[in-house]
Every structure is written in C-alpha cells, then in structure tokens.
C-alpha cells in the first residue's frame, strides 16, 4: 500500500512561511501546554518541517532521502527515543517523492509510535534492526532485509530509478543499496537546505532553550568559588537543566585557570582557585532545539591581563553582531574576526572554532558556518529566519588565562536579535572579594 500525503497532512502556505512578526518580542513561554495563549504548535511545526524537506527534495536531483542521523529523523518524523539512540545507528527514515515519511525504529518503539504519533500513518511505522554498528555482522541478513524494505518504498513512490540521498551511513548498508542498483548520493546538503530557515515555532523553542541556560549561568555565578571542582559545576548544570525540561544535555565544557589557554574543549576534576578565569559552554536541547552558549567568569578578582582579554573578545563579538543582517555574506562577517596569527595560532585550521559562527536548530551545527577557514572561499548568504551562534576567544597576556564569549542570534528582516541574555558586556566576577 502506497502512503501518500493525506488530507490532514496537506502542507499549507502558512506552514512553510515562518510569518514571524518582527515588531513583537520573540516569545519565551513556559514549558507547559496551556489553553489561554498560543505557544508552540507542534503539529504546525511538523507540517512546516516536512514541507521544507519536501521542497528541498523537489529542488534537488534526488528522488528520496534516507536518514540515519537522529536530528534528521526528528525533523522528518517528529519522533525521538532519547539520548540512548545518538550513536547506535539503529533508527532510520525514508522520505520518497510525494509519499509520507516511513520510519524504522528500535523494537517496540515502532508500536509506540502507532499509538502516540497519529501524524504518522501506522503503515509507515516499522520495527527495524540493522546490526547496532556491526555487533550483529552483515552476513546475518538484517542489512539486506532493510535495504529491500527501503527499495520497496522507493518502488511504491515511483522514484526507484532516481538517486537516493543519504545523510550518514555504515559501509555495509551503502554496499547493499548499491547491490540493489540504487545510486547513492549525499543527502545531507538537501536536508541542511531544508533546515536553514526556522519557523516561528522553531524560533520560540530555540529562545526557550536559551532562557534555560540564562538561569543556569545565574546558578554558576553563585556557585563558582574556590574548592568547587569543574566536574561539580557540570553535574549541577545537568541536574538543573533536566529539572527545567531539557531533553538532552549534550555537553558542558568547564575550563578554568591554567587550562584556559589553549582551549581544551572539555572538563576535568580541577579545583577552582581564587583569581581563576573560567569559561563554560552549555550545549543542550529543549524539544530537540539546541543551545551553544559560552560565558566567562572570574573567581573573586581579575587581573588587568584577564580584563584586557575579555574586552578584546567582546569587541570582536560586537563587531561581528553589527554585521548580521539579511543579504550579508558569511565572508563579510568572518572578515571582522582576527586572523589566527593575531591571537597566537599558526594557521586557521588550528584556530578553527575559536572565532566562529554556526547555525543552530535540531543539530548543533547547521547553516551558516562562519569562519576564516572556509567563508572567504565559499561565502553563504545570511537570510531572515536563520538562527546561529557567534563565538570569540582571546588568550590573556599572562600565558594561561583566556576569555570566551558566545551569543545566539535570530536574523530578522532588518538585522538580528540576541537571545542569550545572561550579562556578558563586561567581565562578570563571581563571589567578588
């Protein structure tokens, strides 16, 4: 039976158009559903995302998309089974031609979706198993079976003779698809096209996620004192975020003292000491929508070298934000960032992601990417409805301290709005002596 677009899932123009009223503030409602005001409309969100994906597919040379990336699965199907699935490669979905999305999920999750996900057609929710990253070897036949089921969906929707776009794939699955005569191409670019412009519901979710981290940074400001370990701060951040409704605390960087330069991108059990400069990055998701949100603090006091580093990082940030508006190229924004050699690195590859911009959505890194490493050769146009983060980093002249700042921006029709609101214009001093 062919699963086609049903009457209840017709994509309306209003679902494809973000229609955000930029004369109004971006809402940051609570996490409850209420009957007295409009908040996030999750069914409208599903229609918007599916409509964007279908349009991107029509604009491509592909006949269908096969996705194993959990972020893409959520974007197409509005389903998730938690952080456990992130690295298992055990779930996949297919969007073929004008058909409905098909989902293969882990065991009983498929039966759960048939009951609790009425926006998906029951015949499109399948149990699937492809080996759990090779622990069940390919010769067991599970991958062959899955490839045949995928081909059947392509056949039913009349796109079996067209290229199949795939986002990420294990080699045995790729080989089985090719044995069936399917031409496999890169589908990630098509999905990134779809995810580039956010709807009003997505913007509200991203703003709500940022508001959660606003609160977490207030807690860190209070807790950051000598004798506390970096790992203890990370634990408290995780607890607070999950209590507020986060569905995935992906990572928390906690970097202090002599660990600040060069940036190690992790946390340890180091004890916080008086006078430390410390910075944090909180990467988490609310309803699947991510934050990437750095703040720097000093503990008790700050030296002139630490203050100077923070001032310089803030200047670079403000210069970049001032450039953001529709029609500007990512090369123009990258040009205001310092060259790698200007802050102690031999080349742009080693300095990558220190002066940086990246899109945010259901994934941590979406379009646009802004960097001196790639933006001059492949500039990308900034558009209204994009949401992205800008990051700056400046080592201090003392040889070990450093300042790190990150702001998340929503691109409006005339400029941008910052949605990361914990104060960062001046260096915050926690528990000042």
Descriptive account of the structure:
With 433 residues, this protein is an alpha+beta fold. The protein has two domains: 7-195, Creatinase/prolidase N-terminal domain (Creatine Amidinohydrolase, Chain A, domain 1, 3-Layer(aba) Sandwich), CATH 3.40.350; 200-430, Alpha-Beta Complex (Creatine Amidinohydrolase), CATH 3.90.230. Helix content is 31%, strand content 20%. The protein contains eleven helices and 16 strands. The chain has helices spanning 13-16, 42-59, 70-77, 109-116, 142-156, 171-179, 188-195, 200-223, 230-244, 304-323, 330-334; strands at residues 64-67, 92-96, 102-106, 125-128, 164-166, 184-186, 248-256, 277-286, 289-290, 293-299, 356-359, 366-370, 387-395, 402-411, 416-418, 429-430. The strands form three sheets. It has a six-stranded mixed beta sheet with strand order 4-3-2-1-5-6, with helices on both faces. Strands 7, 8, 9, 10 and 16 form a five-stranded mixed beta sheet that branches. The chain has a five-stranded antiparallel beta sheet with strand order 12-11-13-14-15. A hairpin with a 2-residue loop joins strand 8 (277-286) and strand 9. Helix 2 packs across helix 7, helix 5 (142-156) crosses helix 6 (171-179) and helix 8 (200-223) crosses helix 9 (230-244). The N and C termini lie far apart (72 Å). The relative contact order is 0.12. The model is unreliable at 6-14 (pLDDT under 50).
């Amino acid at each position: 039976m062919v699963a086609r677009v049903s009457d209840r899932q017709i994509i309306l123009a209003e679902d494809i158009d973000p229609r955000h009223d930029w004369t109004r503030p971006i809402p940051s409602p609570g996490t409850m559903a209420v009957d007295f005001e409009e908040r996030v409309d999750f069914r409208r969100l599903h229609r918007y995302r599916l409509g964007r994906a279908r349009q991107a597919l029509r604009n491509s040379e592909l006949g269908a998309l096969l996705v194993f990336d959990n972020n893409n699965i959520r974007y197409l199907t509005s389903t998730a089974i938690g952080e456990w699935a992130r690295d298992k490669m055990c779930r996949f979905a297919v969007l073929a031609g004008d058909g409905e999305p098909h989902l293969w999920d882990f065991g009983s999750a498929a039966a759960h979706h048939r009951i609790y996900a009425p926006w998906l057609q029951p015949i499109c929710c399948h149990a699937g198993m492809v080996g759990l990253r090779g622990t069940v070897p390919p010769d067991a036949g599970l991958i062959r079976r899955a490839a045949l089921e995928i081909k059947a969906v392509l056949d039913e929707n009349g796109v079996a003779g067209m290229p199949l776009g795939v986002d990420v794939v294990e080699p045995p699955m790729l080989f089985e698809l090719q044995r069936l005569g399917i031409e496999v191409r890169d589908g990630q670019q098509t999905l990134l096209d779809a995810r580039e412009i956010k709807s009003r519901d997505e913007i509200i979710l991203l703003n709500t996620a940022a508001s959660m981290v606003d609160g977490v940074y207030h807690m860190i400001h209070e807790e950051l004192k000598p004798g506390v370990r970096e790992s203890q701060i990370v634990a408290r951040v995780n607890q607070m975020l999950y209590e507020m409704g986060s569905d995935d605390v992906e990572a928390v960087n906690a970097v202090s003292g002599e660990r600040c330069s060069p940036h190690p991108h992790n946390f340890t059990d180091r004890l916080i000491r008086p006078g430390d400069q410390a910075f944090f990055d909180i990467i988490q998701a609310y309803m699947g929508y991510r934050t990437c949100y750095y703040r720097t603090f000093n503990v008790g006091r700050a030296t002139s070298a630490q203050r100077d580093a923070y001032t310089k990082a803030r200047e670079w940030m403000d210069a970049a934000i001032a450039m953001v508006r529709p029609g500007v190229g990512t090369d123009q924004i990258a040009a205001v960032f310092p060259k790698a050699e200007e802050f102690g690195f031999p080349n742009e590859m080693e300095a990558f992601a220190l002066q940086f911009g990246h899109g945010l959505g259901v994934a941590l890194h979406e379009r646009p990417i802004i960097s001196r490493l790639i933006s001059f050769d492949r500039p990308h146009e900034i558009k209204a409805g994009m949401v992205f983060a800008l990051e700056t980093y400046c080592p201090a002249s003392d040889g070990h301290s450093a300042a790190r700042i990150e702001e998340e921006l929503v691109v409006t029709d005339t400029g941008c709005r910052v949605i990361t609101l914990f104060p960062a214009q001046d260096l915050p001093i926690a528990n000042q002596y």
